[in-house]
Amino acid sequence: MRRFTIFLAGFCIGALLIGLVPSALTQTAPAQPAKSPLFINMTTGDSWRGWMGLHFAHATLKMGHPVTVFLNLDGVRLASKTGEQEKKPSMQRIPREIVADFIKDGGTVLMCGPCMQEFGLRMEDLVAGVQMGRPGLTQGFIFADNARTLTW
User: Fold this and answer.
1) CB count in 10 Å sphere of residue 98
2) How far apart are CA 74 and CA 41, in angstroms?
3) Which region among 6-15, 52-61, 85-94, 111-120 has the lowest average model confidence (pLDDT)?
4) Is the CB of residue 111 less than 8 Å from the CB of residue 133?
5) Total Cβ atoms within 10 A of residue 78
6) 15 by DSSP, 3-state: which?
7) I need a labelling partner for 115 at 20 to 30 A (CA). Which of 23, 50, 81, 87 fits?
8) Is residue 12 part of a domain?
9) Residue 129: which region, alpha, beta or left (left: phi > 0; alpha: psi -120 to 50)?
10) Considering the domain boundaries, does residue 10 fall inside one?
11) 68 belongs to a structural domain
12) How buried is residue 130: exposed, middle or buried, by Cβ count under 10 Å (0-12/13-18/19+)?
């Protein structure tokens, strides 16, 4: 009888411990959406920093994620067809070339209108395919289902 009582007590304690195992240890992480959109707020007009952000955006686009780049502040200069854009040894292309290829490959580039005016740019001064951002349009990309945002 004593053995049966010890067995029963051990069985009950074991069952209790199994029930206390945190569910986090037994569950897998929730699946992420296969192709979450990415919205990049690009605020720099520096050629190298801009190139890095645009290169990241283009690589993410090539992975199958919808990517939108919003050029604002002096970042609007990255899409200018003219003007100097320094090319450092680590850069394969200058920013305006990446912008053009990014758009050609299906990426979206939105431009800040007041920022363009500040730098004396007009739509005809920009790489083909750049779109003017505006209230409602820009927010539609920021708040898209499962969208992630990044500031560069």
Assistant:
1) 24
2) 12
3) 6-15
4) yes
5) 29
6) helix
7) 87
8) no
9) left
10) no
11) yes
12) buried
Q: Is 47 helix (H, G, I), strand (E, B) or coil?
A: helix
Q: Rounded to an integer, what distance in angstroms lies between the CA atom of residue 6 and that of residue 67?
A: 63
Distance between CA atoms of residues 79 and 97, nearest Å: 9
Beta bridge partners of 67: 38
Alpha-helical runs (H) found in the chain: 2-20, 23-26, 47-62, 95-104, 113-118, 137-142
Q: Give the C-alpha separation, 40 to 54, whole Å.
A: 9
Does residue 65 sit within a domain? yes
Q: What CATH number does residue 118 fall under?
A: 3.40.1260.10
pTM value is: 0.77
The pLDDT tens digits of the residues spanning 34-48 come to: 689 999 999 999 999
- Beta carbons of 86 and 52 less than 8 angstroms apart: no
Instruction: At 93, list the tokens.
Output: 């292309």
Residue from 84, 26, 88, 18 nearest 52 by CA: 88
Encoded tokens for 30: 């929730």
